[in-house]
Amino acid sequence: MQDIRFEQATSFKQKPQDESKMGFGKLFTDYMFEMDYSVEKGWHDPRVVPYHNFSMDPATSVLHYGQEIFEGMKCYRRKDGGLQLFRPRDNFKRMNRSAERMAIPQFDEDVAMAGLEKLLEVEKDWVPHTQGATLYIRPTIIAMDAMLGVHAAHTYKFYIILSPSGAYYAGGLAPVDIYVEDKYVRAVRGGIGFAKTGGNYAASILAGMNAKHIGYAQVLWLDGVHQRYIEEVGAMNMMFVYEDRRIVTPVLNGSILPGITRDSVLKLGKHLGYETEEARMDIHDVIADIKAGRVTEAFGTGTAAVVSPVNKIRFQGEEIGIGDGGIGHITQQLYDVLTGIQFGKTEDPMGWVVHLK
Ligand code: PLP
Ligand code: COI
Hints:
The mean pLDDT is 96. The protein is built from seven helices and 18 strands. The radius of gyration is 21 Å and the shape is globular. By secondary structure, it is an alpha+beta fold. Strands 1, 2, 3, 4, 5, 6, 7, 8 and 18 form a nine-stranded mixed beta sheet that branches. Strands 9-10-11-12-15-16 form a six-stranded mixed β-barrel, surrounded by four helices.
């Protein structure tokens, strides 16, 4: 495997004094990982270097046609001070699946993993100490050709930046109200919904803004063909609990992002004795099930917030409450067990955690 070069920084940022005020994705550390791709050399020169700006030709293709992909994961500090990652290989695997869809060359997951570990070794003091706070990890690949032709670039940059981020919910899990979006869609059949690529997020911003404007925290996305089947909620996967014992989520169909938290909740749910199911979920049926009291809890899942309980859903002008408006006990249990594993407080029955040196 290629060696990872290291370049020493000459100046260092001040670390956050008050970890409760970091927010999400606003602060960045002193170093980053980088490697480049060219047709002649393939992926080359993996290196940990001082955090720096990029200088780009205004014609650089990523800026015009969005040929780019990214990932999101976290580094967690245990009580004993040690550091750990949660299923990081799954993030790099998903990144290569995104790469394939976006016509970006595959990278060696071992090099990416070694690069991340080296970066974290250098930046270990940046991993927050406060309960619930983490070092958010953002691997990214961008197309670097300076050209305006619409075709795959010949040069790319892979980089990883780190952002110390606060607990998503400062005051514990806060149930949110969501708006069923029946005008805009985020992804379409045959499109790029399953890939973690900027265009999906760009497509989601207007609907998210409109929903916020009328008091809803997130949009519930319906499928792009029938505008009838539930896909995701904001930038999270969606889960419903039926009759206090069955966890149901929309089946992966190509336009849903296969979340690692989603997969973890399905596996942990089963481990904890619940039934789990991936199904095509018609919004009309789900609304009827909520009204009939069969849906007892609902929540989103994602790396950033882990789980996000849903209080009310607005559908075609009507607002429907789920459960008693508080955090459902299965939602809370899944949150506690999952974050317990991620922060090394409870055992890791699935072998998901990677300890760092
Ligand atoms: N769906 C979308 C669109 C996302 O951006 C994310 C966040 O990464 C997720 C779902 C949840 O995925 P994961 O659990 O891997 O973070
Ligand atoms: C998540 O981690 O749940 C996300 O949705 C990441 C987001 C900032 C793109």
